[in-house]
Each structure stands twice: as structure tokens, then as C-alpha cells.
Amino acid sequence: MATPVLQVRNLTTRFKTERGVVTAVDNISFEVAAGETLAIVGESGSGKSVTSMSILRLIPSPPGRIENGEILFDGKDLLKLSEDEMRAIRGDRIAMIFQDSMSSLNPSITIGKQIAEPITLHRNASWNEAYEKARDLLSMVQIPDAQSRLSVYPHQFSGGMRQRAMIAMALACQPKLIIADEPTTALDVTVQAQILDLLKDLTQKAQTSMILITHDMGVVARYADRVAVMYGGRIVEQGPAREIFNRPAHPYTQGLLASIPRIDSDPSKPLPAIEGMPPDLSALPVGCAFAPRCPKATRECLASRPTLTQVGEGHLKACFNT
Length: 322
Ligand code: ADP
Ligand code: MG
Description:
By secondary structure, the chain is of the alpha/beta class. Strand 1 and strand 2 form a beta hairpin. Helix 4 packs parallel to helix 7, helix 5 crosses helix 7 and helix 7 runs parallel beside helix 8. Bound molecules: adenosine-5'-diphosphate and magnesium ion.
């Protein structure tokens, strides 16, 4: 098998807060193969964004710190690079798309200049060449009248258009990996689907790998090749998307799946939600972090913590229940 584009091994990231030390990401390992989309899914506060910020080395320090692990990209451990070497990778070999385009785009710089700038920086292109490329990218993300749109400011775009511009920016330098952190969560459902379809289509054409972070199992179903399910800063289940949907092994994943609306679900009945609250990361229980909410929990689950074990081809779960 070809070497994965990204290998994360035993990554642990902590924050020092007034309430104590928070282990936001606790010893997680996963890989992303060439051209593949890995979805990281979990409720709010499960450590998804901290995972993506750790890969990009954008954890604010203090209060945060990557305490342990390896992040192998292109055969190099990103955690061992200098800040300059890391800057050369960010936006070039690894690009990111965030949920909130309004805070990721600079409000006082035109869309054209913001897309062109990384091309001049990373690709040694002249501003003229970079603006031409920016125009082509805007057409590629299906923004009509791209030439004249180069000179507008972010607030003149709708939320959906800004997200398209973010995708254009992310693709500008033909990265090997795109990390899209809840890229469409702020948009309405129809626009969300259009944008994810576009992102999937463009990454597939360019054979770009993607980490797609979402709290929405519906999004996972439609776009992911493989899935890592996070709970309380840990990966509790991981595997090929088809396996996870056909044979979800962890009760938490089963709960997430039960809460997706289906064509055959009765619209008059509310979808079953997972009861209870996500765990407090500064005071995780000694046993399985999901046990307090788990319909299948036993005494064993409260007493000790299950580790990831294989349940199928490339399919792992951290649960004592069989
Ligand atoms: P999500 O899965 O919703 O993306 P995050 O990865 O953003 O969750 O956050 C996971 C946890 O990490 C948060 O609940 C919080 O406890 C902690 N955390 C994240 N950023 C910080 C920070 N800057 N300072 C302190 N704690 C933080
Ligand atoms: Mg997040």
C-alpha cells in the first residue's frame, strides 16, 4: 500500500485553564490516504477542531500545548519543523477551510487579492499571473462573472459565496491535503449541499486528500470514504464509511446514526437524540467517557477504559460491549 499522505500517531493536546488541565485530544492516531476523504465526527467539544489546529500547529500557546505524538506529512514530522518551515507548508501543501468565513477572510482586502496572495508567496508568481489564477479559481468554484468579482470585498458576498471563495483559496496552490472544519455549518441546508458537492468534486478531480470535520452524520454518509468518531477527546470508533454505516460498533456511533433523518422516518415523531451531556474534559471518568450516557454500560465500563480493538477490516472500536 502507498504511504498515507498524513499519519497522526498518539497525538495529545492539552490546555491549562482556570478549572485545571483539559485534555482536549487524548492519544489519537489516524491516517489519511492519497485522494481519500476522512471524516472526523463527534458532538461539539469532542476535540475535532483541536485536532485540526494541532496538525497545522495553530494551537494557541499558552494555554495550549501539544504534549505528545507525531504528525507525519510527506515523510516529515510536522511537530519537529521550525515555525518558518511550518509556514511554508500551511496554505500551500496543507490548506484549511474554516466554518466562519467572515473571520477567516480579511474584511478590508479584496477577494481577488486574498486569493492571489498565497499564489505569489508560495508559487513565486507575479501579481498579474496570480490574479489570473485567482479569476480561474473563482470560475472553478462556480462564482459567476469571476473577473469583476476579484475586486469586491468579503462583506459584498453572501455566506455561500464566501465559502466558495474560501475553497478557491484553499485550492490555489494545489495542496496535498485540505482540512475543512465544519465548512458549511453556518449555511442553510441547500447551500450546504451545493458547497460540499463542489468541494468533493474538486478534491476528487485533483486527487487531494481531505479531512472533513463535522458533527453531522448525514454529511459523513454522503462525502466520507473513512470515518473517525470522536468522543471526549478520543477516537472511539474508526473505519471505512460503509462499515461504520452498516455495522456501527460503538453505542455512541449507533446513537449518532439514529439521529439522522431518513426518508422513511415519521416526520411527526422527533428523532431519538443521545441523552445527557458531553463529558467535562477536565474531569473525565476513569472508565469509558461515554458510559454515563450509554444504554449498554456495565460495571466494567465504569471501572476501566476500553482501548481500540479491531472488529472488522480496518474497523476499530473502543467498547467492551460485544
Ligand atoms: P469541537 O469538537 O467542537 O471542535 P474543540 O476541539 O474546539 O471541540 O474543543 C475541545 C475542547 O478543548 C473544548 O471543549 C475546550 O475544553 C478545549 N479547548 C479548546 N480550545 C481551548 C482554548 N483555547 N483554551 C482552553 N481550552 C480549550
Ligand atoms: Mg470545532
